[in-house]
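Thread: "does anyone have the structure for this chain?"

Original post by V.I.:
We have the sequence but no experimental structure in hand. Need at least a predicted one for the grant figures.
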Amino acid sequence: MAATEAALRSFARRSSHVSFTKDLCFVRHKVILACALVMILAFGLRASAATYAWQEARLEGIVLDQKSAPVAGAQVSLKTGTSVIAEVTTDIHGIFVFETIPVRDATLIVRATGFSPSERRWTAIEGNGSRLQVVLLPAPVSAEVTVTATRTETRLSDTAASIVVLSSAELSTTAAATIDDALRQVPGFQLFRRSGSRTANPTSQGVSLRGVGASGASRAVVLLDGIPLNDPFGGWVNWGRIPRESVSRIEVLRGGASNLYGSDAVGGVVQIITRRTVEPVLSVEASYGNQRTPSLSLFAGGRARGWDVSLAGELFHTDGYILVDEKERGSVDTPAGSRHAALDLTLARQIKRDARVFLRGSYFGESRTNGTPLQINRTHLRQLSVGGDWQSKSTGAFAVRAYGGTQVFDQSFSAVAANRNSELLTRLQRVPAQVFGFTSQWSRVVGASHTLVAGFDARFVRGASDEVVYAQNRPTSFVGAGGRERTAGVFALDIIRVNSRLLLTGGARFDSWRNYAAQSVTRPVKQSGAATINAFNDRSETALSPQLSALYKASDALSFSASVYRAFRAPALNELYRSFRVGDVLTLANERLRAERLTGGEAGASIASFKRNLNARGTLFWTEIERPIANVTLSVAPTLITRQRENLGRTRSRGLELEMDARLKNRWTISGGYLFSDARVTSFPVNLALEGLLIPQVARHQLTFQMRYANPKLVTVGLQGRLMGMQFDDDQNRFPLKRYFTLDAFVSRRVAHGVEAFVAIENLFNERYQIGRTPINTLGPPLLWRVGLRLHLGTGLDAAGTR
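Reply from O.Q.:
Generated one for you, tokens below.
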């Protein structure tokens, strides 16, 4: 036992009256007349000077959103009566300038895609003063902008894709303390298991959308400003590495998107878009909750000597709770907790007016206790990214990104006795990985009908799993396995506006990848034993991912859409070479895995009414995956279930997606969504018993709703509810997980200029729902509460984003 503790310690290590006589009357009248003439002349000169002044007035301003981030590409115009006298567009930093204004007063109008127009009176007195600030409010949903659907700015009403945008206002009024829990507002979004990143093992945080099936590896790509966040070795996501105060909005694209994003986008895309600001701003959120859960998140930004600088950071800790049901737990069961630190520093420089370059460095460190004394893990990640954006009316817009990083993931595994009163260490594992990637993109509007997008992506990954295997708490052997992966893809897209009502989008991507230099080595602890080396054959595959969609606007309020696509997902190095154990389940790797191939289609309709304050959308979808990778049960014993990753024959997910959002006056927002997904194994020649069974970890019914009341002078209230239907925890449908409903609540009030106090409660009714049966019954978190303060300073805005 001393050896075990020593091994674990080494394993687990910021504003006369005068009388006149009658003889002077004549003089008096002359004086009065002279004074009058002087006054008239002075008035005329003053008017003339004023006229000259306002003719030479200069107006400079900045356009911001509610979170003080600049709005680039906004159209700013000065209007008198019905005539527009001047018009400019904001630059990348949201800045606009009118050098000379030929009128004394005018109406200033600002329009930007995704925001409601802003209109105000301007006079020459404001012309040569300090910079004018214009804060835009979010527009109705149909006018919001997405950059994810086509990799270029597009209005939601102009895309056939199924897109959900979580705005900064929505994210700031959710009780969720983590980004993945906030994303559960989106029907169809789920991690591998029902548990969230507060307590779940990071290797179970892969993303699934629309019921395509979950696994440790994501079947959706997660991006941060266009750069992949999926773990390069395993495909899972470290959600804590993104400081919450740095997030501007999140876009979720459901449906195959490999035509633009390649592998991992087989089920869709989750893109997290961060804040970017050049005006001095400071946003801080600090809170404390039950289970000894303090957290701190901050974002600070500004401009210094021509450089745009932003710093984002986050600290989080929770003691967690005991996962195992009270009826089944033993003395070995302890709380599953976590703590993490994240830091992100970005430097950017504007080059002339239409070009920008940036450099971003990030650090993330996390450690977890996984429910028993011997089960722990930790992650250390460092990443550097550099890029540039340049645009020209003649050649179009260019974007280039390069990124690279290293990380180490350590984990320990144990075998728990049947009575859960003791455990034995089974293995210590270290997973080092390195990644380097490059992405480039060009887009241009051609004529009045076409918008072209094209680009190239490449990525190189190297990773391994190095283990010490234990038997009876004694190391017996060293096992190492890993390899390298090289991928490259080229894509092109054409958005065709056939007429004012019909929009067609078509494109394709070609990808090639290769796994090479892979091997496994087993060496006994005793020097006398011989090492066993198994070299795996180099493997390569290619994939063509076409996509075609159509959007028909029957009227300003009613539109119809349809899409067909192909997508793929290459197996991660983790699936190919790393085995792992969770609870009583051992899952083996499989170096022979092949890429998954998806064929899908969808058709839908959307309607807007009441001046677009009420929007509804319905979509029927169908997807079929050939050779899906799943954890297949090989054997079941009282204390151990053995599974192995295998390519199944074929799975199918089909269903209905319904969404609605309503904005009532200026303070109330209500939205909701429902997803029905029938996800089944349709073919598996190796084991016919699995055919017809439901895909594990996919609920047939998902229902979510949100309600928000925002009155910055009084109170802000947010409610989020989620109903999840029954699902199975295993491929053989032997372990059902019951349906559950949870309700979260958030209340905040401004207590001082720029300061807001809040209370957030998750799982308000303390619903103890199942998250796993392996076969031990494990439960989701109980009622979680936290209280805190938010501080927002800068750009003349208070914490609620109002002036």
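V.I.: this helps a lot. The first strand starts at residue 57 and ends at 64.
O.Q.: and The first helix runs from residue 2 to 11.
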